[in-house]
Design brief:
- The structure holds 2 protein chains of 2 kinds.
- By secondary structure, chain A is mostly helical.
- Helix content of chain A is about 65%, strand content about 0%.
- In chain A, a hairpin with a 4-residue loop joins strand 1 and strand 2.
- The relative contact order of chain A is 0.11.
- By secondary structure, chain B is of the alpha+beta class.
- Chain B has one domain: Roll (Ubiquitin-like (UB roll)).
- Chain B has a 3-stranded antiparallel β-sheet.
- The chains are: A mainly alpha, B alpha+beta.
Chain lengths: ~325, ~100
Amino acid sequence: MAEHSVQPTAASEDPAQNAEFEARIARGETIEPKDWMPARYRRQLIRMMSQHAHSEVVGMLPEGNWITRAPNLRRKMALLAKVQDEAGHGLYIYCGTETLGVDRQELIDQLLAGTAKYSSIFNYPTLTWADIGCIGWFVDGAAIVNQTMLAHASYGPYARAMVRICKEENFHKRQGYEIMATLAAGTPEQRAMAQDAVNRWWWPSLMMFGPHDTDSPNSDELLRWGVKKKSNDELRQRFVNLTVGQAKAIDLTLPDPALEYDEASGNWRFGPIDWDEFWRVVKGDGPCNRERLAARRQAHADGEWVRVAAAAHAARQQRPADAA
Amino acid sequence: MTGDTQLPLWEVFLQPPKGGAHEHAGSVHAATAEQALQNARDVYARRGETVSIWVVPSDAITASAPDDAGPFFDPGNDKPYRHPQFYKAPRGVRVF
C-alpha cells in the first residue's frame, strides 16, 4: 500500500533521528515501512529478507525433484502442497522486502545473475525418497526455530510474514517426520535409507543457522536492532535440543559421536561443524549450486510467455472498443 | 514487449470466516484485477481460512504519514470522557 512508496534514506543521517530510532527499538516498538530508519537498517533488511525469500524459492527445487516419484498418492499430495507453500512463502517475503523501496524485479535479477545468496542447504542433492522426509524434519524444523524468532523482528512487514509462515510450516515438519518414522519402522532397506539420509542432512542442517557468533559479522548489528532476538549459536542449540529426542523416538542415530547431554546447562553438546564445507557451499561450490541456478533461470525463461500474455491481455482490456 | 516486467502491484485484504473484517495480508503482482484476485487466492488463501478477498492497486491507497502521527491523532488522545473508566459508579455495583 502506501507501504510501498518509500523514499530511500539520505546518506547523511541526523544523530537525533538515529537516537530516536534506537530508542524506539529499545522500547520494543515495531518499525513500519514509512517510518524513518537508518539507511543501514534498510540495507541489512533488504539483504536478509531477499536472501530469505530466495531460499524459499530455490528450496522448491530439491523437493520438486521427487513429486513425480512420491511413493503413493497421499505422499504426493502432501509434497505438492508443501512445495506450493514454499512458493507462497517466497512471495510473502518478497512482498515484505518491497516495502523497503526495492523492486521485486531487481531482487529476482540478482538471484538469476548469481549475485544473491540463498540458504546453502538447498545446494545439496535429494538422492532418495528419505531425503524428502529428512528435509521436512530437519530443514523445516530448523527453519521453524529461526522463523519463530523472526516473528518478533523489529520490522513489521518481516515479522508479519513470519507469523503467516510459521502457521503453515508445522505441517511441513510433521509430514517429513512421518515419512522418516514410517521408513525407520519399515524393512531393513528402508531403515538403511532413512539412516543414510540422516547422516547426510544432519550437519548441513546445523550449518543453516549460520557461522558461530564469533564469526558472524552481521549478527551483532541485527541483534542490536532487534531484527534477530537470538544468536546463531543459541538457535542452533535449541534445534539440537529439540531434535535429539525426536531421533531417539524413531530409533535413528544422529551422526555425531560427540553428542552428549550436559546436566548443568540442560543442553545437548555436539561435535565441531565443518566450516570449510559451509564456506565452500556458500561461495558457490556446493554439490548443486550450478544446477539450482540453471533450473531457476530456465523456469524464468519458460514463464516469459505467461508474463507477456498477461500484460497483453491487460492492455487489451483497457481498450475494449478496439478489441473487436 | 519485454517479458521481464514485474507487473503492477496490488494490496491484498482477506476476510476470515465468522464475521471478521477484511484485514491487510500482503501484496501480489498482476496484470489485471481479476488476475490479482486469483494470485491473491493462490498466495494468501490456500487453507480455507478466507471467505472474501479484496485487491486494491497499491498506488490507490492514501495513508497517514508517521511524521504527522502526533498532531493527526491528537484530537482522539485528550478526551478521557470517551472511555467508560472516566465515570464513577458506587462501590460494589456491577455496572457492566
